[in-house]
Every structure is written in C-alpha cells, then in structure tokens.
Amino acid sequence: MKNEFSSSTFGWLAGALLAATLLGCSKPPPAPPKAPPTPEEKSKNTISKAAFGTLPDGTAVDLFTMVNANGMEVRATNYGGIITALLVPDGTGKTTDVVLGLKSFDEYAKNPPYFGAIIGRYGNRIGKGQFKIDDQTYKLPKNDGPNTLHGGVRGFDKVVWQAEPFEKEDSVGVIFTYTSKDGEEGFPGNLQTRVTYTLTDKNELSFDYHATTDKPTVVNLTQHSYFNLAGDGNGDVLGHEFTIYANEYTPVNKLLIPTGKIESVTDTPFDFRNKVKLADRVNVDNEQIKFGKGIDHNFVLKKKQPGLTLAARVSEPSTRRVMEVHTTEPGVQFYTGNFLDDTLAAKAGKPYVKHGGFCLETQHYPDSPNQSAFPSTVLRPGEEYNSKTVYTFSVR
Fold first, then answer.
1. Residue by residue, what is the 3-state secondary structure of 70-90?
2. Which of 85, 123, 129, 172 has the fewest CB atoms within 10 Å, i.e. the most exposed one?
C-alpha cells in the first residue's frame, strides 16, 4: 500500500503536539476573588447536640455545645444540667476552659461533688433533714451528717432533664424542664421546673429559673459550677481577687447550719467589700473558717430594689480574666473548694487540689425553712418561683 503520510501532514501534527504540550505546562488563570461573606456566613451563635452517655436503665444522655459570635463556648448536658466546659478568652484572646469537671459521662454518674449542676429542690443545707409548712412536718433523706444537702440523695443534679435547644440573633441556649413528683426526696407537691441556659454575644451566661407547684413546698434553685479563671486544673484559686457586694453574712455552727443571726462582715475574714486575694482570707485563725475548712458561707447581698443586683466580681491577674455575677436572689454562697483533696482528676489529668476552684451559688439563705428571720422559700399553688442569675466574662 502506498504511504500517504506526507511531510505536510507530519508538520501539522508536530505543531499541534507542541501547542498542546505548552498549554499543559502553563499555569491556569487565577480564580476570581470570592465575594465577601454575607451576614449569615459570618461568625454567629450556634448550638449542636451529640450523644454523651447512657444510664444503666438505658436512658440516653445528650451534650449540647453552645458557641457565641465571639468564640465563647459552653457545653452542658441534660443529665443534671451539668456544665462540663466553659471556654472563655483571656487577655490575649486565647480561650481556655475555666470550669472544673470530669472526663466522661461515666465519671459524672459516679456522684462527684456537684460539678456544674443544677441544684434543687433546695440548694444548700436544711438542718436536721426536716422542715415544717402549715404545721405539717416533712422529713428528708440526710446526706450531710444529720442534715440534707442540695436536695437530698437524688437531687436535681442526678436526673435527666428534657432539653430544647434554641438559637436567636444575639443568643443561643437550652431550655431544661423537669417535673419533680410529689414526695420525691421527701418534698411535697408536684413541682414543674424550668431552667433556661442562655449564652449571649455579650459573653453573658444567664440562668433563668421558673417553678410552680400543686402543694405548698420549698424551693431554692441554684447552679453549682466550680471556677478557676486561670484554667481548669491549673492549681488553686488563692491568687484570685474577689469582691463580694455584701455588708453582712450568716454565721454557721460546726455543722455548717446557720445560727439564725445575720452579722456584719466588718473586721471578719468575710469582708470582701474591697478587692482582696483569697489567700488573705482562708488562711486566718477564725472559728468560722475552721468550721468550713475555708469559706463556705452565705453572704447577704446589698439589694436596694427588685431585679438584678451585682453580687460579686472576680479577677485573675495572670490571664486578666474577669467574671461578674448579677442575681435577683438575696444571697450568694461563696464556697472555696475546701473539700477538694487530690482524689479527683481534672479534665486535663491533673488532680484537683484543695481550693482548686470556687463557687458563687446565688440563692436564698441556707436552712431558710427552719429560720423564721430569713426570707421565705415557701412556694404555694397559684404562685410562681422566678429567679435569674447572670455570669458575665471580660478581660481587664
């Protein structure tokens, strides 16, 4: 057969091959610039839900993660409303977890010292494990020597709450609800309870408490997070600086039950009206300090009118973090982690040392059901229990 592959054909193919090679070696044209992000694409409040664990009876437990537009993050579970993590910026913008907690759900289920939980029906102590309403005596389980502490053996910190997450333009949060049945832990009345956690763009974490009952009962709800503003597990909080806006406190007996007196903080270790390092107060020779092995006392807040009142301000010098507490409650229990003893490990693995965290539990006074001079904690049918507390975080 005659070869029809002419020189002109060869030249054309060679040119085409060279052009294709050069084209393959050249860089592609740059991509067009991206359009600026829309407001919806910018950093915003978000909330997500994930499985956290399972109770022995098969009940599933969830963990909710709330993040605001500033990167502040709160993680809370519907088991006891426990706040397992709270990530807050420091003076350099670095976020660090500032609440004490445990590594897993199984550890929380082993009954730790109320880390991060909702406390109820009655926060703090009820003397001799009993109280009276309308000449009817109610006896409660005793889980603190002869007294009842934080709602009894199975308080609100050990139940699974119904949880409904929400997102708003300037906030994100979870609504926790729980019905405490008549007679639960000895308390009368079916108590319908709602606690709303809200994280705002102002770096506020608020707690709104609401309850109603069908029988006269007592209610005193609070939140029991332990804080270390230097970071979870990062030593003790003795270098933290505290201001508590209280002229008076309620002294206690050796069982930490109020004596019924309301006394001035003047010339006592409980005078935090001006900023002071915790180390200057918990290491003094004082009977009240010895009773609590540190501070574990109720402070009577300076409330001039209803609504939110500034209760306390805490600052941590090395990180420049600041925490303020506002509340509608008449008191705040200041607890300085006196019973932490190296036996519990922090989330980072270090042991929690004595004074490794502090609590500011906004509340009515301890043992109010048995102290007629204290503000009443009785809730009756047709009435509503409403309380609000706000933790605000900033840097100085």
1. CCCEEEEECECCCEEEEEEEC
2. 85
Residue 179 reports pLDDT greater than 70: yes
The b-or-e profile of 231-258 (16+ CB within 10 A means b, else e) is: bbbbebbbebbbbbbbebbbbbeeebbb
Annotation marks residue 150 as catalytic: no
What is the rounded distance in angstroms from the CA atom of residue 150 to the CA atom of residue 334?
A: 15
- DSSP-based helix, strand, coil % in the chain, nearest 5: 10, 40, 50
Task: Convert the pLDDT of each residue in 191-224 to its tens digit.
Answer: 999 999 999 999 999 999 999 999 999 999 999 9
- Whether 224 is a known active-site residue: answer yes
The identity of residue 209, as a single letter, is Y
Per the DSSP assignment, residues forming a β-bridge with 163 are 176
Residue-level pLDDT at 25: 41
Q: Which of 224, 240, 297, 326 is catalytic?
A: 224
CB-CB contact of 369 with 262 (8 Å): no
Q: What CA–CA distances, in Å, run from 354 to 65, 233, 292?
A: 29, 11, 13
User: Omega of the bond prior to 313 within 30 degrees of 0, cis?
Assistant: no
> Residue 219: which of 196, 245, 191 has the closest Cα?
191
Given pLDDT bands bounded at 50, 70 and 90, which one contains residue 88?
A: very high
CA atoms within 13 Å, Cβ hemisphere of 296: 23
Which residues in 310-328 are b (16+ Cβ under 10 Å) and which e? bbbbbbbeebebbbbbbbb
pLDDT tens track for 318-371: 999 999 999 999 999 999 999 999 999 889 888 999 999 999 999 999 999 999
Distance separating alpha carbons of residues 87 and 71, to the nearest angstrom = 8
Catalytic residue among 248, 316, 361, 364: 361
Instruction: Report pLDDT digits (tens) over 234-244.
Output: 999 999 999 99
Beta strand 162-167 pairing with 263-264: unpaired
| Residue 105 to residue 328: CA distance in whole angstroms | 32
- One-letter amino acid of 246: A
